[in-house]
């Protein structure tokens, strides 16, 4: 596709359930990022994938959060045993490996934990 | 530690007028990059403009320009001839070049409202 896509666009879940969020980056982009944005806040870095290198997981808030990426394509962010404080918009971005590294964002997944 | 500061939580501007959104940054790196993104109510983060720390010219992209003052560590966004569609949140961000990481450090944003 032309841009970064994310699914689902909205997810409502009950506390304690697991959720899986998906990101399809722009074709040819080797870098992929996940961010969290709580209501009225800026973006909070979660995890970064660059090609076949080990991902930078330094932003993951707890071991309930994990992410995988298949090669240089789709990524899934998994949140286990969701808590109400996990409610936020989860944004995915991708960029070329080199150069300016401008990150292009998807529309986000709005997660609501009841 | 690297940090981005946006001191204006909200701004108002009259349609067709120019507006400046402030951004200051803190870094010990000599090489860094600064970005501005727009986030309308739909939620998508839209890239607007980029300034590299070694760029001698201020970046411009259509109605957007970046007033880069390196000594003052400021990278203000100037929007000329505001339009109603410019009403949105605006975020300033800096590329973190720690190691091989290229994650962005974000400010808290400025909400811009364009009045007709």
Radius of gyration over C-alpha positions of chain B, nearest whole angstrom: 14 Å
The helix-and-strand class of chain A reads: mainly beta
Q: Could you describe the largest sheet of chain A, including whether it forms a barrel?
A: 6 strands, mixed
Shape of chain B: globular
Task: Provide the low-confidence segments of chain A as ranges.
Answer: none
Considering DSSP H and I runs of 4 or more, what fraction of the residues of chain A is helical?
under 10%
The succession of helices and strands of chain A, N to C, reads: EEEEEEEEEE
Q: What is the number of helices of chain B?
A: 0
The amount of helix of chain B comes to under 10%
Number of strands of chain A: 10
* Oligomeric state of the chains present here: heterodimer
Instruction: Give the distance, in angstroms, between the N- and C-terminal Cα atoms of chain A.
Output: 33 Å
Query: Could you give the order of the helices and strands of chain B?
Result: EEEEEEEEEEEE
The greatest interface here is: A-B, 26 and 24 residues
The fraction of residues assigned to DSSP E strands of chain B is over 45%
Q: Tell the overall outline of chain A.
A: globular
Output mean pLDDT of chain B. 91
Structural class of chain B: mainly beta
How far the N terminus sits from the C terminus of chain B, by CA atoms, comes to: 41 Å
Largest sheet of chain B: 6 strands, mixed
The total strand number of chain B stands at: 12
Task: Describe the model.
The complex is a heterodimer of chains A (114) and B (116). Chain A is mainly β and 114 residues long. The model of chain A has no long low-confidence stretch (mean pLDDT 91). Chain A is built from no helices and ten strands. Chain A is 0% helix and 46% strand. By secondary structure, chain B is mostly beta strands. Chain B is built from no helices and twelve strands. In chain B, the strands form three sheets. In chain B, strands 2, 5, 6, 10, 11 and 12 form a six-stranded mixed β-sheet that branches. Chain B is globular and about 40 Å long. The N and C termini of chain B lie far apart (41 Å). In chain B, 33% of the residues are buried. The model of chain B has no long low-confidence stretch (mean pLDDT 91). The A-B interface holds A 31, 33, 41-45, 48, 50, 53, 56, 59, 89, 91, 93, 95, 100-108, 110 and B 33, 35, 37, 42-47, 50, 52, 91, 93, 95, 100-109.
């Amino acid at each position: 596709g032309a841009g970064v896509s994310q699914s689902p666009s909205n997810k409502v879940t009950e506390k304690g359930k697991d959720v899986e969020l998906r990101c399809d980056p722009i074709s040819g982009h080797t870098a992929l990022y996940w961010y969290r944005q709580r209501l009225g806040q800026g973006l909070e870095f979660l995890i970064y994938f660059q090609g076949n290198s080990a991902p930078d997981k330094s932003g993951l808030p707890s071991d309930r959060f994990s992410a995988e990426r298949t090669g240089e394509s789709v990524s899934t962010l998994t949140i286990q045993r969701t808590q109400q404080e996990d409610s936020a918009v989860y944004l995915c971005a991708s960029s070329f490996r080199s150069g300016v590294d401008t990150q292009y964002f998807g529309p986000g997944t709005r997660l609501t934990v009841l | 530690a690297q940090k981005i500061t946006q001191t204006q939580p909200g701004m108002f501007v009259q349609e067709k007028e120019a507006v400046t959104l402030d951004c200051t940054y803190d870094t010990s790196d000599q090489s860094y990059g600064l970005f501005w993104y727009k986030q309308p109510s739909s939620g998508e983060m839209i890239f607007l403009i980029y300034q590299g720390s070694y760029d001698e010219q201020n970046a411009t992209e259509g109605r957007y320009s970046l007033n880069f003052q390196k000594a003052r560590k400021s990278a203000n966004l100037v929007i000329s001839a505001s339009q109603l569609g410019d009403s949105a949140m605006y975020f300033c961000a800096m590329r973190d070049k720690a190691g091989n990481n290229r994650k962005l450090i974000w400010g808290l944003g400025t909400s811009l409202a364009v009045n007709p």
